[in-house]
Amino acid sequence: MSLRRSGPPPQTGTPGPDPASVAAVQKMLREARNGKPGKESFVRRLMTHPVRAVPVAFLLVIMIGTALLMLPAARTDGGSEGFLPAAFTAVSAVCVTGLITVDTATFWTPLGQGIILGLIQVGGFGIMTLATLLALLVRKSIGLRGQLVAQSETHTLNLGDVRAVLLRVAKIMLSFEAAAALILTTRFWIAYDQNPATALWHGIFHAISAFNNAGFSVYSDNLIGFAEDPWIITPICLAIIAGGLGFPVIIQLTRGELAPKYWSIHLRLTIYGTLLLLAAGTALFAAFEWNRNETLGQLSPTGKILGSFAGSVFPRTAGFNSIDYGVAAPETLMVTNILMFIGGGSAGTAGGIKITTFLVLGFAIWNEVRGRDQVTIAHRSISSSSQRQALSVALLGIAAVIAGTMLLLMFTDYGLEKVLFESISAFATVGLSTGITYHLPPAAQWVLMALMFTGRIGTVAVASALALSAHPRLYRLPEERPIIG
Q: What whole-number distance in Å separates Cα of residue 140 and Cα of residue 138?
């Protein structure tokens, strides 16, 4: 007969650690690491998440740019205008928009123009690198199988190759800018009797402004004086298109993957979408403005073709103008609104909701009309999460434009047509205007600054945040179908 002991077995050896003591020690270690008892450092919490770090970094650059532009040596008037022109110009430059409340050619000294150019370069380089690195981070978070698929599809770099990403972006950016600057400098020097130093400065300024899709110019009438000069308009347009394609597209093309059968879905959507929008925009711009004396009517046939092509390129999203949009036809303004809102390629210097977002939604509608339960593009299916992200970015963009338009209508006396154009131009970081930006009250200028910052940072941050926060459910709820339409 065996006796069975009731209760827990007797303790032998050294007793295990008390859970409460372990928790207390861990808490003390956290407090010592963060420097504040019981609280994690605010800066640490802010900067540890990349989606939060992006807008903070850009705000810091804007603040530095504003301080530099407030220097008396940066202004021809010695700084009597105060804080607002400097802040507006800094936001517009860092967000590579191009909207201005003061004339860049006459209000700012060469030092001020140099500061603006530096802000444009920092803003454009920052957007390309941050958007690319965030895209890599999103890809890194989708799991091993998803990474392998993404790697084979996109042929891009790994997340660990941060240094390589930065160097390649810088190399690509400087190469395109140098090529455009060489052509523009030569043209300014030979055809417009500028001395070599002035020609070089104007060439570099417009090349950097073009590749970064900024739209700033050192001429008071922007590019209207060069409307019929293909040696000025064409290199600027090509630089704008190159910057707007985005780093992932450029790197694939420079690797020799020119045959469409090797293209990823992102590359296909960006290239074909860009060509489609350029062709449609050029045709519609020519149809509405060809015989109007206020815009293209008095130009030569070559000038009209060049002006129509520029009218399709500039809204996506450079902000240069070779015509006066204040006298453009309403139909032209509507087409320009659409081009501005769509924008250019992802992980590039262009703004808007991006071509891929627009086309993914278009294919989703097309497949729904055809009764297909799966969205397919070039024999590849598009995940439902990508469709939801595209829908979210587009709807948030529409909401931002609506809110900005309503506020501008409240703060100004301008009509809906001009205010809507201004609002879309700011959100899409284009920089085109019908001429009302100079006359806006301070409250309206703050609205445009908020739209520029939201449009430049918001679409990247929102898309990345949605992708990073996606967690698959391990269960499905019962379905119910509400009445749609």
A: 5
Cα separations in angstroms, 225 against 138, 165, 210, 222: 45, 39, 17, 8
Structure confidence at residue 371 (pLDDT): 84
Write the pLDDT tens digit of every residue in 12-30: 444 444 555 545 545 544 5
Half-sphere exposure of 221 (CA within 13 A, CB side): 8
Cβ pair 388, 377 in contact under 8 A? no
CA distance 215 to 150: 34
**Host H or E run for residue 186:** helix 162-191
Task: Specify whether the CB–CB gap between 86 and 66 falls below 8 A.
Answer: yes
The structure tokens listed for 309 are 């092509």
Residue 345 · residue 355 · CB < 8 Å: yes
Burial of 303 (0-12, 13-18, 19+ CB in 10 A): middle
Task: Give dist(CA 103, CA 327) in Å, integer.
Answer: 20
Write the CB contacts of 457 (distance below 8 Å, at least 6 apart in sequence).
54, 55, 58, 95
- Can you tell me the mean pLDDT for 308-313? 96
Q: What secondary structure does DSSP assign to 209-268, as a single string?
A: HHHTT----SSTTTTGGGTT-HHHHHHHHHHHHHHHH-HHHHHHHHTT--SGGG--HHHH
| pTM tops 0.85, yes or no | no
